[in-house]
Write a structure and sequence with these properties.
Elements (H helix, E strand, L loop, with lengths): L1 E9 L4 E2 L2 E2 L3 E8 L2 E7 L14 E4 L4 E4 L1 E6 L15 H13 L4 H17 L2 E7 L3 H11 L2 E5 L9 H15 L8 E9 L5 H14 L3 E5 L3 H11 L3 H7 L7 E5 L5 H10 L2 E4 L1 H6 L7 H6 L3 E4 L12 H16 L7 H15 L16 E4 L12 H8 L5 E6 L2 E5 L2 E2 L5 H15 L2
Parallel strand pairs: 1-6, 1-7, 8-9, 9-10, 10-11, 11-12, 12-13, 13-14, 14-15
Antiparallel strand pairs: 1-4, 2-3, 4-5, 7-16, 16-17, 17-18, 18-19
Helix pairs in contact: 2-3, 2-14, 4-5, 11-12, 11-13, 12-13
């Protein structure tokens, strides 16, 4: 399949001299799963093309750019949307979420993930970094819909003994890492959090990470209470404890990272760890504001995630981008904090790097065709003074016209092309939610 997307503004997200390149008028050719060619029009004039394509799409002056990367999510938690609201993280998790999740069947997780994927593509998200109880069901959902997904180990005390849990993690990793199972699905090592994972299990995971020479990801320092409890147990913060047992010898990162100390940040920098912020979830649960400005000053790589629909409740990367910059301006009392270029890079390039998707970062020849089209002919995008700032400060899901993953269009002009009718997904999600209610 060859596709030509022409007559568009193109924001490649490539860099030149350390700065993001500006957009230009041009077109993109896709062959099978990859970007075959990127053409810049001379003086905004369309070039004549004598090529044969299976499909041609007139972008009509709208914006072509790489898809957004949701660098932390729990797709099946869509069944908890607007169910466990207005409570603290501890109460939310132990009194609402865990009891409801215990009622899920494996097949439920596939249906609920499909609902999340539908929401992702309407937000211009072309890949997500997913942690949940049954990774096989998430992988099936991704493959059946054509969505790109990076799995992250959900290991905690619910997975049995330390050896049983790590054996399961190893099996998943051997199956999915590096896209061995399917080119849409890959995996990184991970565990839920320090406070849900026994010491013996954490030590076994660290050993596995060193054996596999693999990065490790986990929820880290999301709340003050979590950090204080870890200090009481180990006389160290979570980050320092993980480092002390050799968890991050080959990199990795943390989700949330609201309460990193200066020493924690030094470890993040030294080990090349990614801090993945989830501002909407953290605001809603009153968990805190991550010190992203300080992290960036220290040279820590940053990315953005939505978290799950139980705590957000909206899987909307535009909202996350605005909150990333807005909360940093409030926290630092500096209007110049977290410029839109930085935030846009976090939502695309840095997210891809954190997830191990080096071939999905930019609109460039040879990169995978994970592309979105944003509608600039909407009031919130006019006038076009600065497209990048428009995306971060005024953009919304209403601007997403098209979402392409791996060279296949999954969403276009309000319609889904994911191999199943949306009504069937909605019906199943509601049945599951009703059956699981306490």
């Amino acid at each position: 399949m060859r596709i030509r997307m022409y007559n568009g503004r193109i924001l490649t997200m490539e860099k030149e001299d350390g700065q993001l390149k500006e957009w230009f008028f041009g077109e993109v050719w896709i062959k099978e799963h990859e970007i075959e060619n990127v053409i810049c029009y001379d003086s905004h004039k369309k070039e004549l093309v004598e090529e044969v394509f299976d499909k041609e799409i007139d972008v009509k002056g709208n914006l072509l750019m790489p898809g957004f990367k949701n660098a932390h999510a729990h797709a099946p938690m869509t069944f908890l949307r607007s169910y466990a609201d207005d409570v603290s993280l501890h109460q939310w998790l132990y009194e609402k979420v865990f009891p409801m999740e215990a009622r899920l069947l494996p097949e439920d997780m596939k249906w609920l993930s499909k609902l999340a994927i539908m929401e992702y593509v309407t937000s211009g998200i072309t890949s997500s970094f997913e942690m949940y109880l049954n990774l096989d069901m998430l992988a099936q959902a991704a493959i059946e819909t054509g969505f790109r997904m990076v799995l992250c180990g959900p290991i905690n005390s619910q997975f049995g003994t330390a050896k049983e849990a790590v054996s399961k993690l190893k099996d998943w990793y051997d199956k999915y890492s590096g896209g061995k199972y399917n080119d849409l699905v890959s995996m990184q090592l991970g565990f839920h959090a320090e406070y849900t994972t026994p010491k013996e299990m954490l030590e076994e995971i660290a050993i596995l990470a060193r054996e596999k020479k693999a990065p490790v990801y986990t929820h880290n320092s999301e709340t003050k209470g979590e950090v204080l409890e870890c200090i009481n147990r180990y006389q160290m913060t979570p980050t320092k404890y993980f480092d002390s047992i050799g968890m991050f010898e080959y990199g990795g990162g943390g989700f949330h990272c609201n309460y990193l100390t200066e020493e924690d940040m030094d470890i993040f920098k030294e080990k090349g760890l990614y801090a993945i912020t989830n501002p909407a979830s953290n605001v809603k649960l009153a968990s805190g504001i991550a010190p992203l400005t300080r992290m960036r000053e220290k040279g820590i790589s940053l990315a953005i995630g939505t978290d799950g629909a139980a705590s957000n409740n909206c899987l909307d990367i535009f909202k996350e981008m605005f909150l990333v910059t807005g909360l940093q301006k409030i926290a630092t009392e500096k209007a110049e904090a977290m410029d839109s270029d930085i935030v846009l890079e976090m939502a695309t390039i840095k997210g891809a790097e954190a997830m191990g998707l080096e071939n999905c970062k930019t609109i460039s020849k040879g990169q995978l065709a994970d592309i979105i089209v944003l509608d600039l002919q909407q009031p919130n995008m006019q006038p076009i003074h600065n497209i990048k700032k428009n995306i971060v400060y005024s953009g919304s899901k209403q601007n997403v016209l098209l979402t392409m993953v791996n060279g296949k269009i999954l969403y276009h002009n309000g319609k889904f092309f994911i191999g199943i009718e949306k009504e069937e997904v909605y019906e199943m999600a509601n049945k599951i939610a009703k059956r699981c209610q306490l």
